[in-house]
Structures are given as structure tokens and as C-alpha cells.
Automatic annotation (TrEMBL):
Protein name stated in the entry: DNA-binding transcriptional MerR regulator
Keywords, sorted A to Z: DNA-binding
Matching InterPro entries: DNA-bd_dom_put_sf (IPR009061), MerR-type_HTH_dom (IPR000551), MerR_fam (IPR047057)
Keyword DNA-binding: yes
GO MF term list: DNA binding; DNA-binding transcription factor activity
Record domain HTH merR-type: where: 2-71
Keyword DNA-binding: yes
Length: 130
């Protein structure tokens, strides 16, 4: 199945401008063209866009994504380096998750503390008026 650029944008959650940008910076191979010369994205293109979106969500820099895309085009011989890039990014994501978990723990502590203060204050008011 082939998808227009508008449909590919809708399905990928990326803008048309982003799709063109990814093509221009060689993150995305130029898609096939239909008989009218319009871009025709394949399921494979959409799967790759989904993966690129995940990489961006992890905070991977565009330059590293470009390196990965270049290696991908070179085939199986680059599997080791591509794996290394993903392992490095995974480590970065795990560190960020740990940092966020620490922040979440502080927020939970403070929320619990304020709930205790509010309940204690409310209990104090009820006791004083009873």
C-alpha cells in the first residue's frame, strides 16, 4: 500500500514539513513516486518513521539519528555499530528515567507531607469547634 505525504504525516504523527526535512537531511530515503510524481510512502517507510519518532522521544540528537540512518543504508555489516548506538541511547534513557524517578519520589514525599498537614489542620479545626 502506498500513502500520500499527507496520509504518511497523519499516520506517523509528524508534520509534512518534518517528513520533507527528514528526507532532506537523509534520515529518510526518498520515497517512491506515483505516476503523477507525488511521494508515495510504503509501510516500510512508515515503520522507519515510527522508529525515528521513538529515537527522538528518547532525546537522541539528530546527528546521531543521521549516523544510524547512514549505517542502516549500508546493511548488515554495520549491525554492531547500530547496536552500540542503541545501547548507548538506552543507557541515556535509563539514566533519565532514574533521574525522573528521583524527582517523582520527592514530589510524592511533598504531596504526602501536605496531605498530612491538611488533615492535621482540618482535624485541629474540628477538635477546636467540638
Amino acid at each position: 500500500m502506498a500513502y500520500s505525504i499527507a496520509e504518511a504525516a497523519r499516520r506517523s504523527g509528524l508534520s509534512i514539513d518534518t517528513l520533507r526535512y527528514y528526507e532532506r537531511i537523509k534520515l529518510l530515503d526518498p520515497p517512491a513516486r506515483d505516476s503523477a510524481g507525488r511521494r508515495a510512502y510504503s509501510e516500510t517507510d512508515l515503520a522507519w518513521l515510527q522508529f525515528l519518532t521513538k529515537l527522538r522521544t528518547t532525546g537522541m540528537p539528530i546527528r546521531r539519528m543521521r549516523e544510524y540512518a547512514t549505517l542502516r543504508r549500508r546493511g548488515a555489516a554495520t549491525a554492531g555499530r547500530r547496536r552500540a548506538i542503541l545501547v548507548e541511547q538506552r543507557r541515556s534513557v535509563a539514566e533519565r528515567i532514574a533521574e525522573l524517578q528521583s524527582c517523582l519520589d520527592v514530589l510524592d514525599y511533598k504531596i504526602t507531607n501536605y496531605e498530612r498537614l491538611e488533615h492535621g489542620h482540618a482535624a485541629g479545626i474540628q477538635e477546636a469547634s467540638a
